[in-house]
Specification:
Chain lengths: 234, 405, 432
């Protein structure tokens, strides 16, 4: 699904040069659920941005679902992002001016579907996250957990193969966080590749595969049984 | 295609949207009306005089004190002016089109008619029609024996036998019969006979109304330069400047005791006559442009604000698959919707303003053709104004969605 | 506190240079356009005889025959020579003056000057005192000169300097239309705008250069300018008894009762004339003060009034524009306002702070607008219209320009400031 080879990312400002990723290599296969952990500032978000085609990288190669993304122009990248990838953000990032229905509609709009198709998908996605009844509400009228569920509905409405989530539970209390994680796991069990950045060991332990990023380099973490025990306990 | 989310956004920013719509509406209303006023002035400036403007030079002359031999002096002047190289014809004339100073008279088709028609009254020496390049399209020019002196007419010793009228006046006076041979009461108790019709001869000033502007007659009256005041020269357009420089010396050689008030090509008379129209047209054009600039500034300001305010939203849209083109189209379309609402309101307002102008300033009814011009101008200004901020919006990185701000 | 708000305003305006510049320019444009046309309007509707415009009255009678299909609601604007001379003789007002425009052919004694025409006025002795014409040398002619049709003239300083190079010329002779006339007075610079006492010769012009007794002008048959209206064929419209109106008559009346008395006098004069068979209509008289007369004659060109309306429309657009920009500017600061509110600022304080910011924008707009007004008036002056040269910015207009800018931008700021201060202090804590 996702193959990165020696991908580097350098941020240049007038005064400083930050190496956010240093020759990071990582492969994620079909059907996998990967949790990415690491200290703050280590490059997790940068990795996710590059994986999700939100940002370009400085060197290395990146194949997404068999496509080399290095040589694509904005239109092609946008199209790929729209069709293959769903995002769930820490800050939910719903558009405050649009109601739930219209928010979920946004990615579908850029795909040129008929309005009937879109309606069906939007209703199905909102139904899936249990908010079909509230689709005329505006984001400000929902709790944080509900907002994140809308964001997930929006991410899955277009049937992406890859779901990227950056600290999806970071702004939620534990009850809401569990709800959201259950939803994501369920999606993964139906075949969607799931990559989650988190600093919460409880969440990381729910993922079959853990990747640790330190100083812009990624490495797989071997699971200890104790970690699994923590998960069941929490 | 993305109409719905745009409308939804505009509804959430009702006040700012309403202000832009209002600004566009008022601008549209004012610009439509000024465009119309400018059009009107420009078309007035193109009014035809009926004479061969390119070839005419008008000399204005006045005597000082009593000039008992003025009639003889006029003949001397005419032949002297005729001998200036480049001059083809010369005549005296009591006035010229757009010359402002005018002789007018009331005429009627029956004696003592209380409903007379006001008309400009031209007269001059025998070559007058020839000099001005006026074609007699029906009937004939005056015969030499038809000329009488103004003096004799005023002291009732003689009667002018004939009159030539413009087509416009003929249509007004004789709508259903050929004018040639008809009697016309112009001067004195007995009528003049219409002997000829000329296509058009503009009045020295507009007369009392638009339809009035086409009413002019020519009479076979002879008068010395002290009365008529103008010598009209027809010269080769190429030699006009040489002719102009010789006029003063030629006339002063004959009699130094006169004042030459002016010598100018007809083009200058036209320019002076319409100078007020030109300056108003210029001023209104300037105001319209300034108005459009201000409106554009308003749109730039608001659009920049919205782009900045929606930076995150734009980033999210980009993250969800919107291309740069999609973002650009979003803002252009949003502006187009606002402009369209403003233009529709503005058109209604234009008509309101026009109704008021019609009452207060005798302005004509706003023609339908002006509205598309006003609308097109505002659409264009709107799209151009929003282009800058919209392009800035396309530069927003989709990564903004993940970087909390 | 004010100083603090001012500091905040300047900081905020400096932070967002583009928007600030747009606002200042918009106000400057609107103020510049309005003030340019308002200055022209004010110049053109200025009082031509300050202090006396309510004491001077134009006289109208209706001497026309009853038969003709002429409207009877408004008498002719001028008088016949017969009536004018009769009313001058009657002398029922404090002062009275009759007059007509004219052209004087002047033959200079200087060899280097060719003969030329000067605008002239044929009038009576009271003219100068009544209209407040200032003398640089000499005096007006006298009523006796009027009676005897004396060969006397008063000329302007400009004409005197052109002809003689000096104004010390009292008693010298000037050749006008072939007749030697004695110079009795030289007028100092005197501009009457609008040219209220005879609007047919000029409205906003340079005025006359030479003045001579009306009686003299008739005796010498000096040439006339202005409008003549005859209701019968008249070989000599200027002759006494001719059926033509071409003479203006003005009277000075000091009080309301004097005005009423003079009106009665005019009515009874009309009745007498009707009994004598000269007038045929019911007495229709008008006695209009300078102010009423100018309004009646609509001297301010309709083009200028039209321009003023357009400019006011322009100002409205600029204000809407400013409201929009201020609103966006203030709403953009919602988070700052929220923090300030959380830290204890009252709505009122926020409102004041924002309004001061609007006023600062207005002040800057006014200063730039002043520049625009100055440029605009320069452009008007370069136009070929007769009134163009008069349009100038004076001190009161300068003040009004700045005031207009500040007041209108404060007005434009009220709504945005009100919206801007509605931010609740909790919003900051609620949203991520
Ligand atoms: N736009 C940017 N410009 C400059 N440096 C950046 C930018 N984005 C991130 N960085 C830097 O890159 C490094 C990695 O950041 P990030 O990927 O956000 O870390 P994480 O998500 O693991 O906390 C950090 O040092 C951060 O300061
Ligand atoms: Mg991060």
């Amino acid at each position: 699904m996702l193959q990165m080879k020696e991908v580097s990312k350098v941020f240049r400002t007038a005064t400083v040069e930050t190496r956010a990723l240093r020759a990071l290599s990582l492969e994620v296969d079909e059907g996998q659920f990967v949790a990415i952990t690491g200290p703050s500032g280590s490059g997790k978000t940068t990795f996710l941005n590059i994986a999700g085609l939100l940002e370009e990288f400085s060197s290395g190669t990146y194949m997404l679902d068999g496509v080399n993304v290095a040589n694509l122009d904005d239109r092609a990248r946008s199209r790929l992002r729209n069709e293959k990838i769903g995002f769930v953000f820490q800050g939910f990032n719903l558009i405050p001016d649009l109601n739930l229905f219209d928010n979920v509609d946004v990615p579908l709009r850029y795909r040129g579907m008929t309005s009937g198709d879109r309606r069906k998908r939007i209703e199905a996605a909102l139904d899936r996250v249990g908010l079909a009844k509230r689709m005329r509400h505006f984001p400000a009228e929902l709790s944080g957990g509900q907002q994140q569920r809308v964001a997930i509905a929006r991410a899955i409405a277009g049937d992406p193969k890859l779901l990227l989530a950056d600290e999806p539970t970071g702004n939620l209390d534990s009850e809401m966080a569990r709800e959201v994680m259950n939803l994501l796991e369920e999606l993964n069990s139906q075949g969607t590749v799931l990559v989650i950045v988190t600093h919460d060991p409880a969440i990381a332990s729910r993922a079959p595969r853990n990747v640790h990023i330190v100083d812009g380099v990624a490495a797989d973490v071997e699971r200890k049984p104790a970690a699994g025990a923590t998960t069941t306990a929490s | 295609m993305h109409l719905h989310p745009i409308l939804s956004t505009l509804r959430r920013h009702r006040t700012a949207s309403a202000l832009i719509v209002l600004e566009i509406a008022v601008t549209c209303a004012i610009v439509s009306n000024t465009v119309f006023l400018v059009q009107e002035r420009l078309s007035r400036m193109n009014n035809s005089s009926g004479v061969v403007e390119d070839e005419l030079i008008v000399v204005q002359l006045t005597g000082i004190g009593e000039k008992p031999d003025a009639a003889a002096a006029t003949e001397v002047d005419l032949s002297a002016l005729r001998s200036i190289p480049g001059v083809r014809h010369v005549a005296t004339s009591n006035m010229v089109p757009f010359g402002n100073s005018s002789w007018n008279t009331s005429i009627s088709t029956i004696p003592d008619d209380p409903n007379t028609v006001n008309s400009a009254m031209y007269f001059g020496s025998q070559d007058l029609l020839e000099v001005m390049g006026l074609q007699v399209t029906a009937g004939r020019d005056f015969a030499p024996e038809e000329y009488v002196t103004l003096d004799d007419v005023q002291s009732k010793k003689a009667q002018a036998p004939a009159v030539i009228i413009t087509r416009g006046l003929a249509n007004r006076l004789f709508p259903d019969k050929p004018p040639i041979g008809q009697p016309l009461y112009v001067l004195g108790k007995n009528p003049q006979t219409v002997v000829g019709v000329i296509e058009h001869l503009a009045r020295p000033n507009e007369g009392t109304g638009r339809e009035n502007a086409a009413y002019a007659i020519v009479l076979p009256l002879l008068a010395p330069y002290t009365v008529t005041g103008n010598y009209v020269l027809r010269a080769d357009a190429k030699q006009a400047s040489q002719v102009l420089t010789s006029v003063d010396t030629t006339l002063n050689r004959i009699d130094r005791g006169r004042v030459i008030m002016g010598r100018k090509p007809f083009a200058e008379i036209r320019r002076e006559y319409f100078s007020q129209d030109r300056s108003l047209a210029l001023l209104l054009t300037g105001v319209s442009i300034a108005l459009l600039v201000v409106t554009a500034m308003g749109i730039v300001g608001l659009a920049s604000f919205w782009v900045q305010q929606r930076t995150r939203q734009i980033g999210i849209r980009r993250a969800l698959g919107a291309s740069r083109g999609d973002i650009l189209r979003y803002f252009l379309l949003e502006n187009f919707i606002l402009a369209t609402i403003g233009i529709v309101l503005g058109m209604a307002l234009s008509y309101g303003i026009n109704l008021w102008l019609m009452k207060a300033y005798q302005v004509a009814r706003l023609p339908g053709t002006v509205l598309p011009i006003g609308a097109a101008l505002l659409w264009l200004v709107g799209q151009l104004a929003v282009l800058g901020p919209a392009l800035r919006a396309t530069k927003i990185s989709p990564a903004i969605a993940t970087r909390a701000t | 506190m004010f100083a603090y708000y001012l500091h905040l305003a300047l900081r905020s305006l400096g932070r967002n240079r583009v928007i600030t510049a747009l606002m200042v320019l918009a106000i400057a444009f609107g103020v510049g356009a309005s003030m340019t046309t308002l200055t022209v309007l004010r110049t053109l509707s200025a009082d031509p005889v300050p202090g006396k415009s309510h004491r001077l009255f134009n006289v109208q009678l209706d001497p026309r025959p009853a038969s003709r299909s002429m409207p009877s609601t408004e008498p002719p604007e001028q008088l016949t020579r017969t009536d004018a001379e009769a009313l001058i003789r009657a002398a029922k007002a404090e002062r009275q003056v009759m007059m007509s425009g004219g052209n004087a052919a002047i033959e200079p004694t200087r060899a280097d000057l060719a003969p030329f025409f000067a605008d002239a006025r044929w009038t009576t002795a009271d003219f100068f005192v009544m209209f407040g014409a200032p003398f640089a040398a000499g005096t007006p002619w006298t009523a006796v000169d009027d009676e005897r049709a004396a060969r006397v003239v008063v000329i302007t300083r400009e004409l005197a300097e052109k002809l003689f190079g000096t104004i010390e010329i009292i008693g010298r002779s000037l050749r006008v239309d072939g007749t030697e006339m004695r110079i009795v007075g030289v007028l100092d610079t005197w501009r009457v705008n609008p040219h209220f006492y005879d609007l047919n010769t000029t409205v906003y012009g340079t005025g006359e250069q030479l003045f001579a007794p009306f009686s003299t002008s008739r005796e010498l048959k000096l040439s006339r300018s202005g409008t003549t209206d005859c209701w019968e064929n008249a070989p000599e419209p200027e002759a006494l008894g001719a059926p033509c109106t071409w003479v203006q008559l003005w009277v000075e009346l000091g009080s309301m009762s004097a005005v009423a008395n003079y009106q009665d006098f005019l009515t009874s004069y009309s009745q007498d004339q009707r009994r004598a068979g000269r007038f045929e209509r019911e007495p229709t008289i008008r006695l209009r003060s300078v102010v009423d007369w100018l309004a009646f004659k609509q001297v301010v060109p309709s083009d200028v009034r039209l321009q003023t309306w357009i400019a006011l429309g322009f100002l409205i657009v600029c204000l809407i524009n400013t409201i929009g920009l201020l609103l966006t500017k203030f709403l953009r600061r919602a988070s700052e306002v929220g923090v300030r509110r959380a830290l204890g600022a009252s709505k009122r304080e926020i409102f004041t702070q924002l309004l001061i910011e609007a006023a600062v924008v207005g002040l800057a707009g006014g200063l730039v607008g002043l520049l625009f007004t100055w440029i605009g008036l320069g452009m008007i002056r370069s136009q070929p219209t007769t009134y163009a040269a008069l349009a100038r910015l004076d001190l009161p207009m300068l003040g009004i320009t700045i005031a207009l800018a500040v007041v209108s931008s404060i007005l434009a700021g009220v709504f945005p400031a009100w919206r801007g201060c509605q931010v609740s202090p909790s919003i900051q804590l609620k949203s991520p």
